[in-house]
Each structure stands twice: as C-alpha cells, then as structure tokens.
Amino acid sequence: MFSAICLSDKQTSSDFKYGLEEKTLSLDAPKPNETVVQVLAASLNHRDVYIMKDQFMGVTTGGVVWSDAVGLVTQCGDNSTFQAGDRVLINPGRGWEKDAEGPENAFAMLGLNPCVGVAAEKALVETNEIFKCPEHLSNLEAAALPLAGLTAYRAVFSKCGIKQNDNVLITGIGGGVALFALQFAVAVGANVYVTSSSPEKINKAVALGAKGGVNYKDANCMEQLRDMLNGGLIRAIVDGAGGSLYGQYPSVMKQGGVIANYGQTSNEPITFSMYQVAQNIELRGSTMGSRREFKEMIDFVDHYKIKPIVSKVFKGLSVDSVQNAVDLMESSSQFGKIVVEIN
User: Fold this and answer.
1) Which pLDDT tens digit goes with each residue over 159-190?
2) How far apart are CA 269 and CA 271, in angstroms?
3) Which end of the chain has fewer CB atoms < 10 Å from its terminal CB, N or C?
4) CA 151 to CA 180: how far, in whole Å?
5) Which of 203, 49, 36 has its CA nearest to residue 123?
C-alpha cells in the first residue's frame, strides 16, 4: 500500500474548480514490461494548474496528479534491463515514440486519467518509459526536468534548430520551459535575449547567460531589443505566451526566422499576417516531445552538466504541500520549478 494525491470533486481552494485528496492505493506486481519506482521527488507544471481550474481537455477526477518525477527502481518485470536501486526519470508522455512530426498514436500525459500520475510514494510504469538519471543532478533538480525539459528541447532544437551564434529570443523568462530553453540555447553557444515583466527575473536570466532582456509590457520593448542586437537580427523565437507582440516580431527578425510556440498564456490572439509571410518567417507549434527526444534531452543535460533551476521545495507528500505548490505557481512569482520532496 502507498499514499498518493488524487484529483477530487471536493474543492481544497476556492480558486480552483477541482481539489485534491490523499488516497491509500495498492500496487499490482509488475508485468514483464513494467517497473515499480519509489518516487523521491515530483514537480509541478502549469498544466497541473489548468487541470484543477478545468481549463484542460478531458478532465476527470479520481486519478493521481502530476507528471514529473525522479525515483528509485524497487521491482522489475522479467524483461527489464534495470536493477533495484537505479535512479530513473519517467517520461511524462505516452503514445509518441519517435516520429519527428508528431505522435504516432493517441497522445496522453501522466497525471490525468487514464494515465496515472506521479504525486505518490510509488509508481508502476512501462519500462521503456524510464531512463537513468544523470548523476550530477540532485533529486530535486532531477524531478524538475521531465516535462519542461522535454518541451524546451523540442522547441529549441527539433523546431528551431538553434545553434552556435544564433540570436534567439525567449519569452516569459521565469517559467520552467523558458528557463530550460535559455540554458539549452546558451549551452550550444547561442546569443539569448529574454522578455519578462520583472526586472529581477531579467537580471537572473542574465546571470544564467542571457545577453539581455526587455519588459514586454513596455510599448517600446522591440525597439529596445533592436538596440541590444546592435545591428543583428533574431533567427529564432521560443515563445509560450502568444499575444500582441507577434505583430512586432518581424521588426527584429531576419529573413526566414522561426517562431516555436508551445503555449499561449497571455490569452491574446496571435497576429500572423503578410508582414511575416513577406519575410519568410515560419510559425511552428510545439508540444511536449517524443520518447526519443526525451532520451536525447536527458543525454544533452548530462553532456553539458545542466542543472535545472528549482525555485521552491515543499517537504512531504500531503494535500497541503501539493496545494501550496499549486498556489505558488498560480501567483507566477516563481523563478524556476516548484518541487515536492516525497521520500
């Protein structure tokens, strides 16, 4: 038996349609293609907040929440190549093996029925969906990596093809995906610029390797960015906000530039007109990534010894700790990932 935090019809906060409840669950013995993982730490994503606010597709209650975790292998199926004690990361997606264009099958993510989440003391997972964790990562850093790291990796490399000396703009710095995109692009030698409404977050991004940043609420922010570029132009934009700035991006972008959009948190429509078409600018949607890209992302993090930025850690698995993590993300005051230490 083990404890898990599940989505509930009973509210634990008036700000959310759904609440959380702690359940005691049983675990079946692993099938030949399955592995039991003792969860050490789990982390929160914006998706988990959207689920609780009923702003995500297909929400049903009763299932274990969250999709990101690091853990120890405790029991292996007959076909496993892992051993008890191996520290592993769990791929948060299902139904997408390797196709570069998109999922081969119906795509789903852990943390929403029918995919069991990882805000629990234990998880039973398909063995081909777990990968050894880089040794340089702490448990808290490792838990922060899966979904946001995968989303950033696909946007930065599979979609934008960012490389050394590229000028890159990453919007909304401070969130998990944006920070990983910054770290990944800096690692390969790109010149990265960021946007935020917080001067403090821009300064923190510069400390992580960004060349500079602008406040997206400033009407002259694109002119300021053009001055920072000193005659250069942006080749790629990694964006999770959407919104009205799309109409101004061509003024700082080179011919044939690429925009990878992985979210639209501003809730403002995107403008894509003949202005962008005339500059051969491409807009590419980007969501999560394949199992192959997940493995590539872990290898990349291991090679460059990238350490995820952890903003806040809550101790212990409980309704209170998980709800507190959700409330913090809802406030948008974090810089980095929010993690719950479980075991």
Assistant:
1) 999 999 999 999 999 999 999 999 999 999 99
2) 6
3) N
4) 9
5) 36
Top CATH class of 150-285 equals: alpha beta
Q: What stretch of H or E contains 51?
A: helix 46-52
Q: Where are the beta strands (DSSP E) in 184-280?
A: 191-195, 212-214, 234-239, 253-261
Q: Is a pLDDT exceeding 90 seen at residue 79?
A: no
Q: Which of 249, 339, 258 is nearest to 39 (CA)?
A: 339
pLDDT of residue 9: 96
CA-based nearest residue to 110, from 157, 69, 162, 71:
69
Domain ranges across the chain: 2-145+308-341, 150-285
Instruction: Give the span between the Cα atoms of 272 and 276, in whole angstroms.
Output: 6
**Average pLDDT, integer, range 252-278:** 94
Show the beta-strand stretches assigned E in 121-202: 122-126, 130-132, 167-170, 191-195
Same fold flag, 2-145+308-341 and 150-285: no
Look up residue 292 and give its DSSP letter. H
Q: Give 194-235 pLDDT, tens digit per residue.
A: 999 999 999 999 999 999 999 999 999 999 999 999 999 999
On the 0-12 / 13-18 / 19+ scale of CB atoms within 10 A, 125 is buried
CATH superfamily of 2-145+308-341: Medium-chain alcohol dehydrogenases, catalytic domain (3.90.180.10)
Using the predicted structure, report yes or no on whether residue 332 has a pLDDT greater than 90: no
Indicate the DSSP class of residue 172: S
Q: What is the pTM of this model?
A: 0.96
Phi, psi of 131 (to 5 degrees): -140, 145
Please state at what angle helix 146-153 crosses helix 176-187, rounded to 10 degrees.
Answer: 50
